[in-house]
């Protein structure tokens, strides 16, 4: 990069007040199987929190469900995701069990993730830092803190 580009890049970072990054929940053993994916996510998180220490928000959802379009077909992932979310959102203590606990992270609806991302980006009192799936569920409701 030329000095001009570096200067523009620095100015760009200085202009950004808040930043939201949608990362991924920790799934224990799965992290090892998809090591490059998780290493990339965590490296991006580290860089963003370094550049935006007072306005960087990292969302870490697990399985995100909604209706997926594949060509002209619609796949309703909510048929699986919604019931799992209802059951697993109450199983938070089980997520602490070594090895299998992270696999019990509840899925979250794509609309909930979108609502929290927009709120985090636009609400100046939304706290910076990492928001796990339980925080995403909590913040997705209108008057939650």
UniProtKB/TrEMBL annotation:
InterPro entries: ComplexI_NDUFA9_subunit, NAD(P)-bd_dom_sf. One of its GO terms (cellular component) is mitochondrion. GO terms for molecular function: protein-containing complex binding. This is Putative NAD(P)-binding domain-containing protein. The lineage of its organism: Eukaryota, Viridiplantae, Streptophyta, Embryophyta, Tracheophyta.
């Amino acid at each position: 990069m030329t000095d001009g580009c570096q200067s523009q890049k620095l100015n760009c970072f200085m202009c950004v007040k808040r930043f939201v990054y949608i990362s991924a929940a920790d799934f224990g053993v799965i992290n090892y199987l998809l090591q490059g994916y998780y290493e990339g996510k965590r490296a991006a998180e580290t860089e963003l929190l370094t550049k935006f220490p007072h306005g960087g928000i990292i969302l870490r959802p697990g399985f995100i469900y909604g209706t997926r379009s594949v060509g002209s077909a619609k796949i309703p992932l909510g048929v699986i995701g919604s019931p799992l979310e209802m059951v697993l959102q109450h199983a938070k203590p089980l997520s602490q069990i070594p090895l299998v606990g992270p696999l019990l992270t509840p899925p979250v609806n794509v609309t909930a993730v979108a609502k929290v991302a927009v709120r985090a980006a636009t609400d100046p009192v939304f706290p910076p830092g990492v928001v796990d799936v339980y925080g995403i569920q909590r913040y997705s409701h209108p008057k939650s803190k």
